[in-house]
TrEMBL record:
Transmembrane segments: none annotated. This is Probable RNA-binding protein EIF1AD. Gene3D superfamilies: Nucleic acid-binding proteins (2.40.50.140). SUPFAM superfamilies: Nucleic acid-binding proteins (SSF50249).
Length: 134
């Protein structure tokens, strides 16, 4: 399989609307930072911080940024690296998980890159115009 074909299949897998719920051993985490060598430092809903690895099929095809939410699956053989990435969650995934009631409550108050619609600031134009004259 050529690199272009592989990239196309991986991107289609990530972008398609696969709204399957996480299994019992999977969990949702938030990316804190990138540590290099396809390792990312993440925070779980309980507040524990650990490293996850990015599988080779995602490397050079999918970009993970600070604040993204990721679905991970634990690995047993790791001492420092505790889990492996399964899927990067989009805004639609987050909305669906909230509707289904499986979204961790610890991440509800986070205003990360517009995931939570309650975080958007609404400013009334009339109030802002009147405040300029006061």
């Amino acid at each position: 399989m050529s690199k272009a074909t592989k990239r196309k299949h991986v991107q289609m897998e990530v972008l398609q609307d696969d709204f399957s719920l996480p299994s019992k051993n999977q969990q949702i985490v938030r990316v804190i930072s990138s540590k290099g060598n396809n390792l990312h430092e993440v925070e779980s809903s309980e507040g524990s911080v650990f490293l996850i690895s990015m599988p080779s099929k995602f490397r050079k095809n999918i970009w993970v940024r600070r604040g993204n939410f990721i679905l991970v699956e634990p690995i047993e053989e790791g001492d420092k690296v505790k889990a492996e990435m399964v899927r990067v969650l989009s805004k639609e995934h987050v909305k669906y998980f909230k509707r289904e009631g499986i979204w961790p409550h610890a991440f509800d108050s986070d205003c990360v890159r517009g995931f939570n619609s309650e975080c958007d600031i609404f400013e009334d134009k009339e109030q802002s115009e009147n405040s300029e004259f006061n």
